[in-house]
Amino acid sequence: MNYREILAESDLSMWEEISADLASHYQVKVIQEPETCLVMMPARDSAQQSAFFLGEVLVTEAVVEIDGHRGYGLAMEDRPEHALTYAIIDAALNGHLPEGERINQLLGEAREEIEKRLEREKRMIASTRVNFAVMEG
Questions:
Q1: What is the pLDDT of residues 40-81, one digit of tens each?
Q2: Which of 8, 46, 85, 115 is the most buried (most CB within 10 A)?
Q3: Burial of 62 (0-12, 13-18, 19+ CB in 10 A)
Q4: Phi, psi dihedrals of residue 16, rounded to the nearest 5°
């Protein structure tokens, strides 16, 4: 799981707080204002392992720059504040800013929480699985 996936799957309020803190200490230059667009959603057929597109998905993207380092933010749906938050975090990591160590620590903690949640969901789903071989008899 890369850090962009962790950002998207974790609690946004934590990242908004860090983003606001970064914006108060650095000059954040918005290169591309948040704007919505449609992107194709890729998927993989589980039976034949062939790639295909499910259809179009509405996303919001933004680009910022901090101390000459660009950051890109992409958020599902029409969420300009999310895209800007992700872009600022991305720029801080790309620029190896001192706050990057704290961000990486929080990303690690968020990853652990996400993995625990996914494991709980997986166990819950597995508990509902039907064994059809037993039902035949």
A1: 999 998 888 899 999 999 999 999 999 999 999 999 999 999
A2: 85
A3: buried
A4: -65, -40
Tokens of 28: 């954040």
- Tokens representing 42? 């890729």
- End-to-end alpha carbon distance in the chain: 43
For 45, half-sphere exposure in the C-beta direction (CA atoms, 13 angstrom radius) is 7
101 with 75: CB under 8 angstroms? no
Structure tokens at 70: 């660009």
Q: What is the pTM of this model?
A: 0.84
- Helix 80-94 to helix 12-25 angle (10° resolution) is 60
Q: Which of 79, 77, 73 is nearest to 31 (CA)?
A: 73
Give residue 3's identity as a one-letter amino acid code.
Y
Whole-number Å distance between alpha carbons of 71 and 46 = 34
Are residues 107 and 6 in contact, defined by beta-carbon separation less than 8 angstroms? yes
